[in-house]
Amino acid sequence: MAAEIEGRKKRGNAGYQVAKAIREGVLPKLDGSISCVDCGKPARDYEHRDYNYPLQVEPVCRGCNRRRGPGIPYKKPHPAAALMNVGQFKAAALLDVG
Ligand SMILES: [Zn+2]
Predict the structure, then answer these.
(1) Residue 66 burial by Cβ neighbours in a 10 Å radius (0-12, 13-18, 19+)
(2) What's the CA-to-centroid distance between 64 and ligand 1, angstroms?
């Protein structure tokens, strides 16, 4: 299914963006000194709630990452997005979810 393939590509890209951000020092390295935002154990992963925002991540441990499940898949921009400003587009994107 095309949408599913698109979603997988975006997840891959989101992971790449995070790895790049860590390499460049934009995000701190998860070396055990950063705590999971959910339970306080050492965080192992940066978790995405929304793959449309590849750098909007939270440090979580493996268990909490699994518990949280997958994030919101990438959605193609709304066709009318070009006519709207960014704030309105965000509202349109939220209405689109579900
Ligand atoms: Zn945790």
Answers:
(1) exposed
(2) 4
